[in-house]
UniProtKB/TrEMBL annotation:
GO terms for cellular component: cytosol; trans-Golgi network. The keyword Mitochondrion does not apply. GO terms for molecular function: guanyl-nucleotide exchange factor activity; small GTPase binding. This is DEN5A protein. Residues 24-284 form the UDENN domain. One of its GO terms (biological process) is retrograde transport, endosome to Golgi. PANTHER family: DENN DOMAIN-CONTAINING PROTEIN 5A, PINSTRIPE, ISOFORM A. Keywords: Guanine-nucleotide releasing factor.
Length: 284
């Protein structure tokens, strides 16, 4: 039986430099996109512990749900703000486990990966030149008007492009907690503080491994109807578990539902739920 720990696994997903850049077919690969706008396969790079008997680790599911759009590459010109999301894994017996992921960007230090991205751009630009080159009888008019496809191609090549000699390449990476209950706010704070510790010029008070060990082995699940306060890297983290007489745990801000769907759609959804209609939410 489960010992009632706050978290079962700490997981890291990202770029496997040994296998290199593999197209992510599941995310709908489009080779017409520039290489920086394509998606590549992400992999589970590490997890701790290796396995727990009450919650077997599903590497394929966790890897896909941690980074559902695969790896993303950016340069110094792009926005690289961290993004947080959650997911649920439902097993065949109906039991659930919850995942919380913080995706951020870090500099690519592998020269092989940088060279591979540069090669992809050379191939992409060459293919684009062939597909969009003007007919031979239009060359004279192009040169006189200065408005031929060659000019637009050169502009396109500079837009969303990558030059290994001048650009810094960044790739997405994900840290994740797998937990038995959906304490979203607490998990988000844990991951954000861990990320802050990694990116801060000053080292954290204790080694990062000690904080991860603490969250996995020393922080218990709060009893029903009680709250729990434990230490993060930079400050306390609090979570509360409802009692059996209260509504089930729902640790997500309702505000986001209204921001994403709008008031009219939320009212329509609520009406459909009361009328017991089947509801399907479709999203990218």
């Amino acid at each position: 039986s489960a010992p009632g720990r706050f978290a079962d696994y700490f997981v890291i997903c990202g770029l496997d430099t040994e296998t290199g850049l593999e197209p992510d077919e599941l995310s709908g690969e489009n080779f017409e996109q520039t290489p920086l706008r394509r998606t590549f396969k992400s992999k589970v790079l590490a997890r701790y512990p290796e396995n727990v008997e009450w919650n077997p680790f599903d590497q394929d599911a966790v890897g896909m749900l941690c980074m559902p759009k695969g790896l993303a590459f950016k340069t110094q010109a792009d926005c690289r703000e961290p993004q947080f999301h959650s997911f649920i894994i439902t097993r065949e017996d109906g039991s659930r486990t919850f995942g919380f992921s913080l995706t951020f960007f870090e500099e690519v230090t592998s020269k092989q990966i940088c060279s591979a991205m540069q090669t992809l751009y050379h191939m992409h630009n060459a293919e684009y030149d062939i597909l969009h080159s003007p007919p031979s009888n239009d060359k004279e008019s192009c040169s006189t008007t200065g408005d031929c496809n060659g000019t637009s191609v050169s502009k396109l090549q500079r837009f969303n492009s990558y030059d290994i000699s001048r650009d810094t390449l960044y790739v997405s990476k994900c840290i994740c907690l797998i937990t038995p209950m959906s304490f979203m706010k607490a998990c988000k704070k844990v991951l954000e503080q861990l990320h802050q510790a990694v990116t801060s010029p000053q080292p954290p008070p204790l080694p990062l491994e000690s904080y991860i060990y603490n969250i996995l082995y020393e922080v218990p699940l709060p009893p029903a109807g009680r709250s729990l306060k434990f230490s993060g890297v930079y400050g306390p983290i609090i979570c509360q578990r409802p009692s059996t007489s209260e509504l089930p745990l729902f640790d997500f801000p309702v505000k986001e539902v209204f921001e994403l769907l709008g008031v009219e759609n939320v009212v329509q959804l609520f009406t459909c739920a009361l009328l017991e209609f089947q509801i399907l939410l479709y999203s990218q």
